[in-house]
Amino acid sequence: MTTFSRRTFLETSAAASALAALGGVPGLRQAVAATTQGGEKWVKSVCRYCGTGCGLFIGVRDGKVFAVRGDKDNHNDGFLCLKGFLLPQILTAPDRCLHPLVRKEGKLVRASWEEAMSLVAARFRESIDKYGPDSVAFYGSGQGLTEETYCANKLFKAGIRTNNVEGNPRLCMASAVGGYVTTYGKDEPMGLYEDIDHADVFLLIGSNTAEAHPIIFQRIVRRKEAKRDVKVIVLDPRRTPTARIADLHISFTPGNDLAILNAMAHVLVKEGLVDEVFIAKHVAFGEGAEVNKSWDDYKAFLAEYPPAKAAAIAGCSAEEIITAARWFGERGKAAMSMWTMGLNQRTKGVWANNLVHNLHLITGKIGTPGNTPFSLTGQPNACGGVRDGGALSHLLPYGRLITNDAHRAEMEKLWKLPEGSLKPKPGLATVDMFRALESGDIKCLYIMCTNPGQSLPNVARYRKAMEKADAFVVVSEAFHPTRTSELADVVLPAALWAEKEGVYGCAERRYQLMEQAIPPAGEARPDFAILCDLAARLGYGQLLPFKTPAEVWEEILTICKGTVYDFTGMTRERLKASHGLLWPLPTPGHPGTKRRYVKGDDPLVPADHPERILFYGRPDKRAVVWLRPQKPPDEVPDAEYPFYYTTGREIEHWHTATMTRNCRELANTNLESMAQLHPADAAKLGLRPGAPVRITSRRGSQVFRTKITDGAKPGVVFVHMHDPERMCNLLTIDAVDPASKQPEFKVCAVKLEKV
Amino acid sequence: MNRLPVVLWLATVLLVGVALAGPPGKAGKAAPKRVHPQVDPSEACDACHSDATPQVVAEWFAGKHGMNNVKCFVCHGSVGADFVLRAPAQRCIGCHAEEVASLAHPTLAGKDCFSCHPPHLLSPHRLPLVEAGGAK
């Protein structure tokens, strides 16, 4: 038994004694970092949950995981959040998928690997031959290992030759990518977690950091404890636990933060809190898709956003906006902004991202310790595997684009493909991909390590698409049933976390190697091995000839070489010896890059560059301040649907709860999705705590129980995303940002009825 | 849900638990096995405990664990037989492995984490804070 029952504690007391006996107090750090002692081993790894990427050690005894402990030498300084601490329980969950399943006469029944893989290969081959390569698709995950995602991307784009390669980062990070690419020319943040230790002002917008990224929140708390005049500004319609440390919490009507951000810029300009020299040297201005505006154009644009007007639009006060701007812009104070789904999961998500970057660029508060915009990431390898690895329908690995002729030619050379092999047209983005499954244009879909049957917006529509008799759906998953595997034609049992080896890349460009700690459960196999098997069966074995994930990594190092990501010096041996390394890291002896675009830090900035910063991502070497007007969400309340509906996380659970619901402590806390309402709204509707209430949108309806909380904003109902039985996404809207194609999970209109 | 039975049970457990846990520094005295009743899975712990054990909740909230959302079950386990009244040191190793290991030092013989750090408040050093009358 590997879980933390009382009995296990007693059983493991001897282990703890051994740990304690490792050396007493002197030299303790070295003793704790030892990997093997007294029949136990402690394997260096990374947390399986959010994108913070906390380092940890996995305790193994008798071939089983019995504990985890935080890695003192990693960025998390030895701390884990409450989910991370309970990770061992997920490995022995009763719903682990332990053998392949194949649907026969409507039911999923046990099958051999041979039978399952033969069926998958036959159905994909039949579809490719009969309907063409674009009749099949891959839908992956920001939780897959870098090597796994790389294999899938290569198999589908270079082997099958379809660009229908997507992943759930489209649902969470695509707008952040769009923000970085449009503003700086390249994806991924320039800052790092260490900036938290230097910041004087934090702007947390669209982020419930305390619950979604607890270890980052803890670091902010420590900074605030260490320096008493540190200010925290929280912009969120709800008063979440994050607001507990806020010196200023601005609550506003959902979807109107673009007006607030423009008004903050208005105040910065009006009060002279801008850096004209920095702007002249490093900033360009644009509108729409063109970089054709000037500083004066921008100032004229901002004249339309006085704080009073923005406050009226957003339902907050002008004084709050002015205060936020003054704190952010105060000279001599370092400002760090952090955001996540509140900005990204929006039909104006890229624009919202741009507006945060604008604040840093016009004040010059960027690229020095504590001065940085920094997007927080929801999944442990959305950055390293999918974004950096280019496993989306418009991307090729490491910043290359499908539509760029030179990039395709380069990848064809690297992948040893005949010229013209890679298709120039992007594949279908996530929502369009599932609509193509609905229409029948896509016949076969391979889903790996994710749960779209619960996590897609307007999910009932796409569940029907997956259920269609002529849609062949393969799900590779560590758990069964999930709300997706229950719809599958074939379920492949995937190895989970400690059962396999590979690299995770977290929000701060930190790549870390997770070493295998235990064998896979049952007949489970690593996705790396499953994909190599599938490639061989489809006739593309020469593209994935790998015997180990380390061999894949060797190839990846050749693919990243010469790009702005260049981590050629990040050898397997160096990853094994390290506690995470930040790219760029182009040579074996390079220490890694703390701050991108900064002379002395970033190896891509020439040492003799005359300025402290060089935005080399764009041809003109400038970052762009974009003129982005306030626009409302795609759907706003009206007489028929008078409430805002918004969704998000609770600290106890993660995504669709396939893992957290398997931890006893977590299963008993906050698992059920409740309709969280302000007391005034509950009173108006005659709802008492626990009373059932039906929430209906234009897409669906679901009954929840009522939770009354004064942290809710009047007129806004919040439901968390974790509950597989009461799915919040039956109601959410599948409208997407036209640039990033990310859906607007955060805002739609609903009506509430007492049941 | 009807919280009265839970509140009464919790109050009983707390009193018995405090008595059995003994004074500071008397570590190693295993608390008897207690069974936490099943709970409403839609709620967090403080939904009941803010009524049943308000002092405990207040101290937790004021301490590091409360600030950083390290919730009750991290130390006390789940419901039913998984519940532990006094968290064994091994329950702390997720974040405090070095400190737990330091308990092997001869000067700390017979101590556990709560010998120095008052439960729930978990301030850095017990005695000065106790003498000063509580948390700052």
Number of domains of chain B: 1
CATH architecture descriptor text of the largest domain in chain A:
3-Layer(aba) Sandwich
Gyration radius over CA of chain B: 15 Å
Greatest interface and its participating residue counts: A-B, 57 and 39 residues
Question: What is the name of the CATH class of the largest domain in chain A?
Answer: Alpha Beta
C-alpha Rg of chain A (nearest Å): 25 Å
| Total count of strands of chain A | 30
Poorly predicted segments of chain B = 1-28, 127-136
Q: Which segments of chain A are poorly predicted (pLDDT under 50) over 5 or more consecutive residues?
A: 1-34
- Given the helix and strand composition of chain A, which structural class is it? alpha/beta
Main sheet specs of chain A:
7 strands, mixed
Overall geometric form of chain A: globular
What class, by secondary structure content of chain B?
mainly alpha
What is the share of helical residues of chain A?
25-40%
Quick recap:
The complex is a heterodimer of chains A (755) and B (136). By secondary structure, chain A is an alpha/beta fold. Helix content of chain A is 32%, strand content 19%.
Explained architecture:
- The complex is a heterodimer of chains A (755) and B (136).
- Chain A contains 28 helices and 30 strands.
- By secondary structure, chain A is an alpha/beta fold.
- Chain A has 4 domains: 6-91, N-terminal domain of TfIIb (Single Sheet), CATH 2.20.25.90; 101-171 and 381-544, Rossmann fold, CATH 3.40.50; 174-375, Dimethylsulfoxide Reductase, domain 2, CATH 3.40.228.10; 643-732, Barwin-like endoglucanases (Beta Barrel), CATH 2.40.40.20.
- In chain A, strands 6-5-20-19-18-7-8 form a 7-stranded mixed β-sheet, sandwiched between helices. Chain A has a 6-stranded mixed β-sheet with strand order 26-28-27-30-25-29. In chain A, strands 11-10-9-14-15 form a 5-stranded parallel β-sheet.
- Chain A is globular and about 70 Å long.
- By secondary structure, chain B is mostly helical.
- Chain B has one domain (4-132).
- Helices cover 47% and strands 0% of the residues of chain B.
- Chain B has helices at residues 4-21, 46-52, 54-62, 64-67, 72-76, 93-102, 113-116, 126-132.
- Residues 1-28 and 127-136 of chain B have low confidence and may be disordered.
- The chains are: A alpha/beta (755), B mainly alpha (136).
- At the A-B interface, helix 2, helix 3, strand 4, helix 4 and helix 11 of A face helix 6 of B.
